[in-house]
């Protein structure tokens, strides 16, 4: 099995502060990690749930993938992150199974991880992020 855990469920939001406040009030959740990823044009807040996260993510610039998602589809589920031991091996296995990569090779992600995105058109409509810690 290449997948080791669900790393995170990413939710695209317009207002990161409002989303954090909602999750704090509704679930008692607390921000475990917060980071701006300039290369992706996003700011994220990770709320820990057991060994996984809810990733609230907002755009920091109008050309970011999150901004485009919000404009086209509105707020809500953006992608799911699967934790793997070897991002390149997982990516190769997915491509061999017919997946369409967005990233041509694994790259640095938040929290010091290595990540690669897989296009939803090759993954039954789900944007997938492979996450190697």
Question: What this model shows, in words?
Answer:
The protein has one domain: 2,3-Dihydroxybiphenyl 1,2-Dioxygenase, domain 1 (Roll). It is globular and about 45 Å long. 32% of the residues are buried. The mean pLDDT is 96. The protein has three helices and eight strands; from the N terminus they run βαβββαβαβββ. A hairpin with a 5-residue loop joins strand 6 and strand 7 (114-118). The protein is an alpha+beta fold. It starts with a strand and ends with a strand. Belongs to the methylmalonyl-CoA epimerase family. One of its GO terms (molecular function) is metal ion binding. This is VOC domain-containing protein. Residues 5-133 form the VOC domain.
Give the helix level as a range of percent. 10-25%
The CATH class is identified as Alpha Beta
Q: How would you spell out the order of helices and strands?
A: EHEEEHEHEEE
Rg is 14 Å
How are the strands of the largest sheet arranged?
2-3-4-1-5-8-7-6
* CATH architecture classification name: Roll
Q: From the helix content, strand content and strand pairing, which structural class follows?
A: alpha+beta
């Amino acid at each position: 099995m290449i997948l080791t855990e669900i790393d995170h469920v990413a939710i695209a939001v317009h207002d990161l502060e409002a989303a954090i406040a909602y999750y704090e009030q509704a679930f008692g959740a607390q921000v475990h990690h917060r980071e701006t990823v300039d290369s992706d044009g996003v700011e994220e807040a990770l709320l820990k749930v057991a060994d996984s996260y809810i990733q609230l993510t907002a755009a920091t610039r109008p050309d970011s993938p999150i901004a485009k998602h919000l404009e086209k589809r509105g707020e809500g589920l953006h992608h799911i992150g699967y934790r793997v031991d070897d991002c390149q091996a997982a990516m190769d296995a997915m491509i061999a199974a017919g997946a369409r990569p967005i990233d041509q090779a694994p790259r640095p992600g938040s929290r010091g991880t290595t990540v690669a995105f897989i296009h939803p058109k090759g993954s039954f409509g789900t944007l997938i992020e492979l996450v190697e810690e």
